[in-house]
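Researcher: Sequence recovery benchmark, item below. Answer with residues only.
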């Protein structure tokens, strides 16, 4: 459910998604924990926490993946113990390379 009233930036981003055909959904995934490991300056990315799921549940608090009848909390969900999600617009992200820069530009988010 989309909460109303929306801030102008979030409303514009949703409008961009509603008006553009992105193509078929080919993969659903959640990030179970941070991808960066190690301490500076020796940090590296480890994709192991990315889990493919059967379904996604999108809530105002963030995203949950559903696999084998169980919920998997995405690290960007506000209830996740390792979250750094301090803004509602960080709770869910589309992986489309074409639309993401347009949405970020429209909303001022990264």
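Model:
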């Amino acid at each position: 459910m989309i909460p109303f009233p929306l801030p102008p930036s979030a409303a514009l981003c949703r409008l961009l998604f509603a008006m553009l055909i992105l193509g078929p959904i080919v993969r659903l995934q959640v990030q179970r924990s941070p991808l960066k490991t190690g301490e500076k300056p020796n940090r590296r990315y480890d994709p192991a926490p990315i889990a493919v799921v059967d379904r996604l549940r999108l809530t105002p608090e963030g995203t949950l993946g559903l696999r084998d009848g169980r919920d998997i909390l995405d690290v960007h969900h506000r209830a996740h113990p390792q979250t750094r999600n301090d803004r509602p617009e960080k709770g869910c992200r589309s992986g489309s390379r074409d639309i993401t820069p347009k949405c970020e530009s429209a909303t001022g988010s990264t």
